[in-house]
Design goal:
The mean pLDDT is 93. The strands form 2 sheets. The chain has an 8-stranded mixed sheet. By secondary structure, the chain is an alpha+beta fold. Helix content is 24%, strand content 33%.
Length: 303
């Protein structure tokens, strides 16, 4: 077999890298893919990470190539060591994501390519001389973060390279908008639509008092970022005032959100919860959601 080579990313790799990213995205979120422009932009900066992105001092993208084909790729971040950087990120290095094809009959040495690329990543982190080394699988696509359980080949690579899961686990859920609770009036309760922290906020009011709200982000599939996946949104926040607990307001607000999402042309809604929060997950599953996957956040190199 031709020799494997690990080298810096070149712009000519953009189509093959985008294909590799989309292969991994497709196993996590149905019908979603990212464009070449999205990938190239994410290699330069991460505008959605408006808190942590300004802390990055260096970005490196490496690819493993064989027979003029990109078989694995990784993106690394180095965080500054000054006081402006949050304590958890200060003077750390991170494999933001590492992707490779799983072993196949037509590519029997994919594990070798992945190990070679990982060795290059660890060597780069060592040259940076950072105080801690982290890893994740945060791709520039909705709901692809942490290390999704759908990538056992990446998990195996991380673990044999000395990374250990030290963080939490989140469940990603999905619902068809048509399966959400129906949109019904509620005597004495009105809904006000405003801009919230994470998207459009629908707040329930009774006698001038806010009972709770739900926020939905319908900008996940804006065309300049994603070539496919139109009709997808996620829940940014869902809050019920303690005085309104037990009144079924969560389902009623989801019904209000469903009506708004239909007007937006959205047919699927994502939600995220800590895997250990059985109560929140039960509320969502009873409202039409089902588990899409689980993802493990927080991987640290502990050889």
């Amino acid at each position: 077999m031709p020799a494997l080579e690990v080298r810096p990313f070149r712009r000519a790799d953009r189509d093959q890298l985008t294909e590799l990213i989309n292969l991994h995205v497709a196993t996590v979120v149905p019908g979603v893919s990212v464009s070449v422009n999205t990938v190239l932009s994410a290699l330069e900066r991460q505008p959605d990470e408006f808190i942590t992105d300004p802390w990055v001092s260096e970005r490196v993208t490496l690819v493993a190539e064989q027979r003029d084909h990109v078989v694995a790729a990784a993106h690394l971040l180095r965080y500054r060591a000054d006081d402006e950087v949050g304590a958890d990120h200060r003077d750390t290095g991170e494999i933001d994501w590492l992707l490779c094809r799983p072993p196949a009959a037509f590519w029997p040495d994919s594990d070798e390519a992945a190990d070679l690329l990982m060795s290059a990543c660890l060597a780069r982190l060592a040259r940076w001389n950072v105080r801690a080394r982290y890893a994740s699988g945060d791709l520039p696509a909705p709901a692809v973060y942490g290390l999704p359980r759908n990538w056992p080949h990446i998990r195996a690579l991380y673990e044999r390279s000395g990374f250990r899961h030290v963080g939490d686990t989140e469940m990603i859920l999905i619902a068809r908008v048509t399966d959400l609770p129906p949109h019904k009036p509620r005597p004495g309760v009105t809904v006000q639509r405003t801009l919230g922290e994470c998207g459009t906020r629908l707040t329930a009011y009774a006698d001038g008092r806010a009972l709770g709200f739900i926020e939905v982000d319908t900008a996940l599939s804006r065309p300049e970022r994603h070539t496919r996946g139109l009709g997808l949104a996620d829940i940014g926040n869902l809050h019920i005032d303690p005085s309104a607990h037990g009144e079924g307001l969560e389902h009623w607000l989801l019904g209000q959100a469903a009506d708004w999402l239909r007007l937006c042309g959205v047919d699927r809604l994502l939600a995220y919860e800590a895997a250990a929060d059985g109560t929140a997950i039960t509320h969502l599953t009873s409202a039409g959601f089902r588990e899409l996957t689980r993802t493990d956040r927080g991987w640290e190199h502990r050889p």
